[in-house]
Amino acid sequence: MRKEFRDLAEPDAVADLISDLDIGGATKEVPLTEARGRVLADRVDADLDVPGFDRSNVDGYAVRAEDTFGASEGDPVELEQVGRVDAGERPDVTVESGTVVEIATGGVVPPGADAVVMVERTSRENNTVTVRTSVAPGDSIMVAGADVAAGQRTLGPDTELTAREIGLLSALGLDSVPVRAQPTVGILSTGDELVAPGESLDSDAGQIYDVNSHTIAASVAEAGGDPEVYPIVGDDFEAMKRVLTEAATDSDLVLTSGSTSAGAADHIYQLIDDHGELLRHGVAVKPGKPMLVGRFEETPYIGLPGFPVSALTIFRHFVAPKIRNAAGKPPRKREQITAEMAVTERYKEGRTRLMPVGLVEDGDGNLLVYPVDKGSGATTSLVDADGTVELAPETEQLDTGDEVSVTLFSADVRPPGLLGIGEDDPLLSRLLDEIDTPRYLPLGSREGLRRLRNGIPDVAVAAGPTEREVEAVELGGWSREWGLLVPAGNPDDITGIADLVDSDLRLVNRGRQSGLRASLDAAIEELAEQRGTDQSTLTDAINGYTLTAQAYESPPRRVLAGKADAGLGLRATADRLGMAFVTLGTQSVRVLAAPDRTEKPGVAALEALLNEDDHVADLAGVTLSE
User: Fold this and answer.
1) In Å, how far are 50, 84, 248, 259, 474 from 285, measured between CA atoms?
2) Are 86 and 189 in contact (CB under 8 A)?
């Protein structure tokens, strides 16, 4: 039976529901070597003085202070050395009036001494020590218990243990401490399409690598939980029930991803209904509507959506705070900043939207945000975004220049040193490696120019013929040879576009945003003029003209996989992959900067690199522009 989302809960109601789940609170004794990042369960009092003896803070001589009174550079006093004390050594000598004992830093101050004179203010000849300064009782001595006194309250419950606290506990002689037990979180990804990373992938069968198990496990650990990842389970009711039962038996909380929506193969909600309690199915947020909250048997359960962006968004917003609380960690401070919208964003879905956004600074240092939304299934959205902007259900539009509050993913998030959008290219990838903290969105030449026109990126990279120009500063560029990539030996004897038009050979093209596609379309138009026909007639004749791939290596890789006879691409790619290459010409690649951002360090660094040819030596068909 297909489940429908008829009653979506408000986000606050779901947060309250999750807050009421009982997922831990026990105490555990752990070795000090494993205590970093854990939270103390009980108060720790000192059982001894630290230090446990009067200790010298300097290298010098232990003295009776009164023996030095009046001593100065011009009128020193002479005292007799009667012994020496090193660190970790029990003194076997007493300082009497008129005598001194040489002492190392950390050494036990010998009986009779009440001060230490620094060695730099003394000189010695044989056993006579000349003291050229006066000292007062207690000078250069840390008395017993000065750091920590026996019986003192040193650390309280709920203290998160960092290197500093562990150092203090070590000084107290503790080799283990009582901490709040980390809630064990069982993690289970579901779906027939999922394959564990490292295993072979059959893309033709619609398989994809499992992203959620690893991102959610890492997020659980960051929140203070103990993640336990279970094997992927396909869309099989009995198998899902078996693994869920195992996870519920061994965990304080079970998290699944996938199988929470309304599809016919989404069994999780039915299992929770049958073997526990389904408290909520569906929340009024985007992304992440099909989440579940309940109990499987007696174990708290939360079902996350299958798409990685949705799953991680729901985890961060609803689940992470609960795990932190169970682990005894304080609520994570929501790092929020204020910025302006770089573009207009429309929204009319009537539910809370947690919109992923990226950060960029304009030429004046003002902070701008732009939406990063390739869809919930795009894993690159996980790293291209810096935080979220929460849109209330009644929000219909954010305009360019509107001030918004951004909740950052972490406190150390910073705008990229360079934000670029446009054509993907092997030379560009190398240049970006030399830039400090770049971010590049390979959305194609047309999209790069459009977004540069709208004031989003620092630079746009455009290749081939472009329909419209944009106000920008050209930093430089290069030319690249483009054409058709075919199997080694060119078994079909392809010589150009005409062979694709006049035969049934299959092509893999690039998308409309790509500069390669623009150059191909211009070449097809030229051929159409030569034949006295229109361009659409020729494109209709090319088998696979509408079959497009996203990146510059994607078409040739499909050719290598035997899925096509030719792929649109670059000579540099053919050289790297060992394929035959049918040249169709060269195209220019231009790097264009927003006029108000040319002084940004990242932009200046990229411009400087465009004047160096070190990175093009082994790239076939690539030449830097003069």
Assistant:
1) 54, 74, 27, 18, 42
2) no
Which pLDDT score, from 0 to 100, does residue 265 have? Answer: 47
What's the chain's length in residues? Answer: 626
Distance CA 140, CA 55 (A): 9
392, burial (CB in 10 Å: exposed 0-12, middle 13-18, buried 19+):
exposed
- HSE of 18, CA atoms in CB hemisphere, 13 A: 32
Asked if 455 contacts 419 with a C-beta cutoff of 8 angstroms, the reply is no
Residue whose structure tokens are 């050494």 = 107
Among residues 79, 64, 69, which one has the least CA distance to residue 112?
Answer: 64
The span from the CA of 101 to the CA of 109, in Å, is 9
CA nearest 430: which of 199, 625, 626, 606?
606
Q: How far is CA 344 from CA 330, 396, 451, 540, 569, in A?
A: 37, 11, 12, 37, 34
d(CA 28, CA 584): 69
Identify the residue whose tokens are 């854990």: 38
Name the residue type at position 198: G
* Residue 556 neighbours by CB distance under 10 Å: 27
φ/ψ of residue 140, rounded to 5: 60, 25
| CA-wise closest residue to 79 among 29, 10, 127 | 127
Q: How far is CA 220 from the centre of its chain?
A: 14
> What does the pLDDT look like over 247-292, one tens digit per residue?
999 999 999 998 766 554 467 878 888 898 989 888 898 888 888 9
Query: Hey, what are 449's tokens?
Result: 């120019």
State the DSSP code for 119. G
* Interatomic CA distance for residues 510 and 516, integer angstroms: 7
pTM for the predicted model, two decimal places: 0.78
Residue type, 214: H
491-528 pLDDT, tens per residue? Answer: 999 999 999 999 999 999 999 999 999 999 999 999 99
- Concatenated DSSP letters for 293-357? EEEETTEEEEEEPSSHHHHHHHIIIIIHHHHHHHTTPPPPP--EEEEEESS-EE--SSSEEEEEE
Q: Is the peptide bond before 556 cis (omega within 30 degrees of 0)?
A: no
